[in-house]
């Protein structure tokens, strides 16, 4: 949640130009209360429309100018709004414009942690995940072949035990792919996953083992779910909450940690494509537990989002841009949401290179 954007009075959800300037043509009506919030955001890959979860309701789709798209109407539910401080990916729109939503919480007696809506907002009758998962879904993404992968705080999905990361075999029905079976330690959970161009998956979260091998909160899997032996697994001393891939194959990670591979790296670090620590990346982040969102712009700049504990290059922003080396680029001009009004929790880059910044609050 943020209550002001650079003195403009815009709250909770803004769209930015690639320079970091406010896109004044986009004016969503989410600021009708003193503490507005948008918790989750996904972008429709065909129309570039934003689908949001928060103040406006469990799910709302917005037009290009930010007004509500009334052609998308979800039935009223009693589910709670899922707020998170991590760079969430629990909400996605697939290539058929269906909306997949991993709920962060459900009402008493319900087990429907994952739901899919058609492009008009109706619940998809071909899809029922009620009772499928015994915990929350933290991350959803679509592979190049259209199949969906889900990960989270569950260790069972559709009766498959020790399955914190699953892939569905069909785009229409919920069926777990038995050939894709990565496992974590008994209390492990997946918080973030990114897919490389070669099909390999980088996973971050809270875990000690992957497929029976030591892996401290970060690992890379082959496309079949086996551990990638060519990846040097660095020890990360805290949860990995966010991941992003650069065009050169380097991996940027952020979260609640202070060291990576034994090197001091408060909240953010970068790895070479083989998993070794990249000493050429220096972020100037001086506060731990601060970076909660990452995105890579087409020009290679790294967008960082966080809360009022985030300090980069002597600036205290909630959202800023850094050069590919990690150093802030014109931090005063590029700072987008000054603290302390609230954290920036999600930073998707739209296909047209505009930036959507979402603010949420645990309060």
TrEMBL record:
Gene3D superfamilies hit by this protein: 2.80.10.50
Q: Name one Pfam family in it.
A: DUF5122
Taxonomic superkingdom: Bacteria
InterPro entries, alphabetized: Delta_60_rpt (IPR013431)
Q: From the Swiss-Prot or TrEMBL record, give the protein name.
A: Delta-60 repeat domain-containing protein
Read off the lineage from the record: Bacteria, Pseudomonadati, Bacteroidota, Cytophagia, Cytophagales
């Amino acid at each position: 949640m943020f209550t002001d954007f650079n003195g403009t009075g815009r709250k909770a959800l803004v769209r930015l130009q690639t320079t970091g300037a406010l896109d004044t043509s986009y004016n969503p009506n989410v600021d009708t209360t003193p503490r507005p919030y948008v918790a989750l955001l996904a972008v429709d890959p065909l129309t570039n429309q934003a689908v949001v979860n928060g103040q406006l309701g469990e799910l709302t789709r917005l037009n290009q100018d930010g007004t509500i798209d009334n052609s998308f109407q979800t039935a009223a539910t009693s589910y709670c709004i899922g707020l998170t401080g991590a760079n969430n990916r629990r909400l996605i729109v697939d290539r058929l414009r269906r909306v997949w939503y991993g709920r962060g919480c459900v009402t008493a007696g319900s087990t429907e942690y994952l739901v899919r809506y058609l492009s008009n907002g109706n619940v998809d009758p071909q899809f029922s995940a009620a009772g499928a998962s015994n915990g929350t879904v933290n991350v959803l993404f679509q592979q190049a072949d259209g199949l969906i992968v889900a990960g989270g705080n569950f260790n069972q999905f559709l009766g498959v035990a020790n399955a914190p990361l699953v892939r569905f075999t069909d785009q229409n029905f919920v069926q777990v792919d038995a050939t894709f079976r990565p496992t974590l330690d008994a209390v492990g959970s997946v918080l973030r996953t990114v897919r490389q161009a070669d099909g390999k998956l980088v996973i971050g979260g809270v875990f000690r083992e992957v497929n029976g091998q030591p892996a401290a909160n970060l690992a890379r899997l082959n496309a079949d779910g086996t551990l990638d032996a060519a990846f040097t697994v660095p020890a990360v001393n805290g949860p990995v909450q966010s991941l992003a891939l650069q065009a050169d194959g380097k991996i940027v990670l952020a979260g609640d940690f202070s060291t990576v591979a034994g090197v001091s790296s408060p909240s953010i670090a970068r790895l070479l494509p083989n998993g070794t620590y990249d000493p050429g990346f220096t972020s100037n982040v001086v506060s731990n537990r601060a970076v909660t969102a990452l995105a890579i712009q087409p020009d290679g700049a790294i967008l960082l989002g966080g809360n009022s504990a985030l300090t980069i290059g002597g600036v205290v922003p909630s959202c800023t841009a850094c050069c590919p080396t990690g150093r802030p680029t014109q931090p005063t001009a590029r700072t987008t949401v000054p603290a302390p009004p609230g954290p920036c929790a999600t930073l998707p880059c739209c296909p047209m290179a505009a930036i959507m910044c979402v603010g949420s609050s645990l309060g």
